[in-house]
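User: Predict the structure for this protein chain, please.
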Amino acid sequence: MSWLKTNTYHHSDFADLEALCKKKAESGLKISLCIPTLNEEATIGKVVVILKSELMDRFPLIDEIAVIDSGSTDKTGEVAKSFGAEFYYSGDIMSSTGFKRGKGENLWKAIHQLKGDIIAYVDADIANIHPRFVYGLIGPLLEKPEVSYVKAFYERPLAFSQGIRPTGGGRVTEILVRPLFSLFYPELTQLFQPLSGEYAVRRETLEKIPFPIGYGVETSHILDVYKEDGMKAFAQVDLDQRVHRNQDTNALGKMSFGILQSFLGRLQDHGKVSDLAELSSVYRSLQATGTEYEQIEKEILEEERPPINTIPEYLEKFPR
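Assistant: Here is the predicted structure, written as structure tokens:
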């Protein structure tokens, strides 16, 4: 039976939270929830209160909820703490390593800050937040010891319609990442949404992979885990629908540019291409204002943090 059949789940498979908590207790594992943020005061309160009330207070599935922040200038921290989440600025975590702005930085620093054997990552801008966004991802890790990395997939509607759900991911996935996977990593095309912002991972897997701090973090994770452990390490869970902010095409172009940098670098590291020319880090777009035309240049450099198990400060806290 193919991986798609055996390792694809629906969140309802794990909706019996009492049974899931029993599996967790039997495993002896601790589970942490990380919510990376930057100026999310409008949504962070709802996310925290719904997940904490159901998955910590009512059912002891999660041992901690922590918001890891890139330096918000609004009331994200104040709101998060008022609803019971721990709040940390990523710049204060492993201060010896400095600070870089980006979601990948928050995810990387969270490995040091949180104590869980499993870390679930959930974005802060989900308008229809529900406990399934966490328990759905935790379920396969408690059910299958060989699974180490669980990705979410869902319908991402601009205008949702009933009936047959379109398969696949968002715009960048279908236009960029799926074609690249089809060319170079055909097995990975079984992932519906490799770029989804919700996933849960075992600590020992997170420890050994590098973290791009920008747009390429999800793609790089998948390629590195696949190279090391193959498809058996992955599972994916259907979370039905996710409602969130939709980005314009200019923003998606910048995202694609960053992803391409990371992807091409991995191709070379994995021996799939050789003698790759030096790549530009400048993204160039065009803008027309009336009859005035100009080219806009923005540097997008996909810096990477090394595997965290190479950082002395981390090894002091989590010795191996």
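Residues 3-317 form a domain with the Spore Coat Polysaccharide Biosynthesis Protein SpsA; Chain A fold (CATH 3.90.550.10).
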